Amino acid sequence: MSEIVVEAAGLTKRFGAFTAVDGIDFVVRPGEAFGFLGPNGAGKSSTMRMIGATSPVSQGHLRVLGRDPATDGAAIRSRLGVVPQENTLDAELSVYENLLIYGRYFDLPRRVINERVAELLDFVELTDRREDRVDPLSGGMKRRLTIARALVNQPDLLLLDEPTTGLDPQARHLVWDRLYRLKQRGVTLVVTTHYMDDAEQLCDRLVVMDQGRIAAEGSPRELIARYVTREVLELRFAAGLQDGVADSVHGLAKRVEDLPDRLLLYTDEADQVVAEIADRGLEPESVVVRRSTLEDVFLRLTGRSLVE
Amino acid sequence: MSAPVLRVLEAHARTYRRTWMGSVVTTFLNPILFLLAMGVGLGALVDRGVGGAALGGFGYLEFLAPGLLAATAMQTAAADSAFPVRARIKWVKTYHAALATPVSARDLVVGHLCWVALRLVLAASVFALVMTAFGATGPAGGALAVLPAVLTGMAFAPPITAIAAGGSSDYGLSSLFRFGIVPLFLFSGTFFPISQLPAPLQPVAVVTPLWHGVELARAAALGSAPAWPPLAHGAYLVAWLLVGAAVAVRVFDRKLVR
Ligand SMILES: Nc1ncnc2c1ncn2[C@@H]1O[C@H](COP(=O)(O)OP(=O)(O)OP(=O)(O)O)[C@@H](O)[C@H]1O
Ligand SMILES: [Mg+2]
Q: Looking at chain B from residue 92 to 111, which residues have their Cβ under 8 Å from any Cβ of chain A?
């Protein structure tokens, strides 16, 4: 296998006159978990569908598993696992039938599929739902089933488009755990998300995407170190009292973000700044010191929040 | 047939297992009800009136049954190709799922059309049996009429598949039945010869595939001479099938691979 799993240079996707992905460069290496972090409409799904060889590249260079999606689409897809943003399960059929039909699309013998179905249902904790129709399953179960479906061909590369969107915290943790185990088995993962904790939990390396472009690239830790301080001070004020405060705390922190509902002070000396604020006679309703996250990185890079 | 097409066909068969009851009942019941009401009931009146000569010397039941066979094939093909295809693209999105595997848009279209063909063979055979049981045709004529009926359905399936895939209005798709399939069913020579139509409408009937299918099925069942040479009728239907399939593949590609 070649050293690089996905290689993109100047990768562009246009829909008519609209440019959804605007000349992005990235590389995904074997065995890593690579993320696209970005808000709605950033172009994450468009990028994933090009990698998945279901959407033609408008311009630029793309190689997936060493092949060109324009000419070798079916060969690429035979080695991919795809978890699309929407589950695309057949709700009328049973859990087992969904996996069987999908496995047959890869031309796998029924015997092989049956063996794998048993393992996969065990892996995503759906063994007892094997014969049930898909329709009444919970959102988290459907998501896990979609992940199991994507694994039926034992893919070399797993593409996950927002694997945890719409799930409750418990369901998200289960998905994270399963993806982590896959990574440990050596499966290369490409994940999109607009949750910074997804990205921090799952990704070895990620790109921050906004309006079709890549704003930054690195490991979650590198990005935080590069773009923000280790800690953030969050100040909330009673209605109307935040006006003008940003100016009076100017100079206290390395950077100040004046958000509609709160003030963020980026500093490496949080305790000292808290004291200083009291000295200046400011009386916030609440003061919270927390570690910086990728959300702060995104705010710094784009001036906007990741999740509105 | 390529492996992915077979896999698509297999998926159809598996999905059908969930819904076969309803369609089997209609497959058996519809021809019986129609032949009873129109062929036997109404037919008795027609045969007592002008009947005979205008119907090429055949009784009304004999005249009607093969036409109804072809028209029912059209309806089956349309029903299988309109909302089910729309659903797989727009609602359940099982086509999107399939396209993430080695299956291509072309495989989906060809697999769907092969599935419709299988369903038509089944439905037309049942209809032919019922016809024969009613004495509307001999066993050989009934068997011979199956092929033209399947061909009629297969002339309609691809264009309707393309329309279901390409359009977005569900109202529009039901209008296709109201303003397309139903008038064709009534006025394409099924219930009366198109020479009874007002002169300006006769060429319209000739352009639509159903009239050709009815002519062929009737000729096969009754051993009468069709309006055109049989090969010409057949070639016309095959042309609809092939052109329609090519268009449907393009529409699928445009809609699903973008
Ligand atoms: N088939 C399409 N036709 C036209 N425009 C499209 C199409 N698909 C996506 N777009 C547009 O491209 C842009 C990027 O969409 P994309 O789905 O890639 O974003 P995303 O980052 O996945 O967003 P989300 O978080 O909402 O899923 C959006 O403005 C979207 O409206
Ligand atoms: Mg998306």
A: 92-94, 96-104
Contact assessment for residue B19 and residue B124, using Cβ atoms and an 8 Å cutoff? no
User: Which is nearest to B102 in space by CA: A157, A71, A74?
Assistant: A74
pLDDT at B47 over 50: yes
**Count of structural domains, chain B:** 1
Class of domain A6-220: alpha beta
pLDDT tens digits, one per residue of B55-83: 888 899 999 999 999 999 999 999 999 99
Is the Cα dihedral A122, A134, B251, A47 positive or negative? negative
CA–centroid distance, residue B190 to ligand 1 (Å):
49
CB A64 within 8 A of CB A6: yes
CB A170: neighbour CB atoms within 10 A? Answer: 8
* Bigger pLDDT: A295 vs A95: A95
State which CATH number among 3.90.76.10, 3.50.50.60, 3.30.930.20, 3.30.70.980 fits the domain covering A229-291: 3.30.70.980
Residue type, A7: E
Shortest distance, CA A193 to any CA of chain B (angstroms): 20
Whether A256 contacts A263, CB under 8 Å: yes
C-alpha to C-alpha distance for B172 and B163, rounded to whole angstroms: 10
pLDDT in tens, A67-103: 999 999 999 999 999 999 999 999 999 999 999 999 9
Pocket residue to mutate for ligand 1, from A11, A45, A160, most atoms within 8 A of Cβ = A45
* B96/A86 Cβ within 8 A: yes
Residue B131: domain span: 3-257
Q: What's at A67, amino acid-wise?
A: R
Q: Chain A: nearest CA to B14, how far in angstroms?
A: 8
Q: What are phi and psi of A37, to 5 degrees?
A: -105, 125
Tell if the pTM clears 0.90, that is, is over it: yes
B10 chain-A contacts, CB cut-off 8 A: 101, 104
Give the per-residue SS3 of chain A: CCCCCEEEEEEEEEECCEEEEEEEEEEECCCCEEEEECCCCCCHHHHHHHHCCCCCCCEEEEEECCECHHHHHHHHHCCEEEECCCCCCCCCCEHHHHHHHHHHHCCCCHHHHHHHHHHHHHHCCCHHHCCCECCCCCHHHHHHHHHHHHCCCCCCEEEEECCCCCCCHHHHHHHHHHHHHHHHCCCEEEEEECCHHHHHHHCCEEEEEECCEEEEEECHHHHHHHHCCCEEEEEECCCCCCCCHHHHCCCCCCEEEECCCCEEEEECCHHHHHHHHHHCCCCCCEEEEEECCHHHHHHHHHCCCCCC
